[in-house]
Amino acid sequence: MTIPEVLRVYSNQSDCSEVCHCRADRSVSCKVLPCLPNRPCKLRDRMYEHGASFLLDERGQCRCIRGDLVCAKSQIRTEPSQGLFLHLGYSMSDRNLIEKNTRVRFSVESVAGKLATLLNEDSAEQFCQLRLRNEFEGNLVFRIELSRFSPSKSSNSVESCLSPANSLSSAISNRMFAVISDAELSIIKVAQVERVKFHEPSSASSDGWREPVGRSSAIGSTHRSHRRHHHHIRRSRHHQQTFEIPFNYALQLFLVYLAIFNPLFPVSGK
């Protein structure tokens, strides 16, 4: 495991901590951080103690941090896309605490590099890479992709990254030492892995119509309603034709009958 540049050390299993770093003369310099009040969180008439972890349907894994709700997923909804994603929730109060009292600056590039190292288990060959997908206040979303040097790149599948991604997510949410000992990574409190895969198109039907592939069920519903409408038109026309043919034929027979048996309609040549 790579030793962080600025180490965060906790005392007595509490959130009170100090940060340490190596000086140029190789001596260690430490600073005790202010111990902020551990206020509870109130959500939908429920109270959660500081540090409590829970799940919300729309936001995934969440944790109460000094009265602030920190969740893996942002409240802001975005257009979904296919792939493997790592959702991260970080504490704004913790970020302010670290940046105010240390030289650490919370950086997306730095966080991505450190998490990629953990994702690939400190391997020099980082086959699973993190690319920023979205950034919001308190949230980061990374797309997990294969590097072009990965042995699995030929199959164009990130399934080989799924298991290590889940391990990394668990390490973050369970506050493992590799995460909380790094002053920058300790700001991240919860994580969640999401695999998004769209349905494959079905085979074409007899009328040449193909089931649409899309991210919104409403789009598919619209296409299906058009399809049913076209089928209804075809069926209506078919029934109309089958009705018109016997009627015309019967009319002709009736006129012939009148011409034969009624003197008002003489038959030519008779």
Q: Topology, pairings included?
A:
Elements: E1 6-10, E2 17-22, E3 28-32, E4 41-43, E5 46-48, E6 53-56, E7 60-65, E8 68-71, E9 83-90, H1 92-101, H2 108-119, E10 128-136, E11 139-146, H3 159-173, H4 177-180, E12 188-196, H5 217-261
Antiparallel strand pairs: 1-2, 2-3, 4-5, 6-7, 7-8, 9-11, 9-12, 10-11
Can you put this structure into words, describing what you see?
- This protein is an alpha+beta fold.
- It has five helices and twelve strands.
- The protein has helices at 92-101, 108-119, 159-173, 177-180, 217-261, and strands at 6-10, 17-22, 28-32, 41-43, 46-48, 53-56, 60-65, 68-71, 83-90, 128-136, 139-146, 188-196.
- The strands form four sheets. The protein has a four-stranded antiparallel β-sheet with strand order 10-11-9-12. The chain has a three-stranded antiparallel β-sheet with strand order 1-2-3, with no helix packed on it.
- The protein is globular, with a radius of gyration of 34 Å.
- Mean pLDDT is 77; it is low at 203-245 and 265-270.
- The count of DSSP E runs of length 2 or more, i.e. the number of strands, is 12
Rg calculated over all Cα atoms: 34 Å
Secondary structure class reads alpha+beta
Major sheet strand order: 10-11-9-12
Give helix % range.
Answer: 25-40%
SSE succession: EEEEEEEEEHHEEHHEH
Question: What is the distance, rounded to the nearest whole angstrom, between the alpha carbons of the first and last residues?
Answer: 113 Å
Quaternary organization: single chain
Low-confidence stretches: 203-245, 265-270
Strand content: 25-35%
User: Average pLDDT across residues?
Assistant: 77
Q: Shape from CA axes? A: globular
Number of discrete helical segments: 5
**What about the largest sheet?**
4 strands, antiparallel
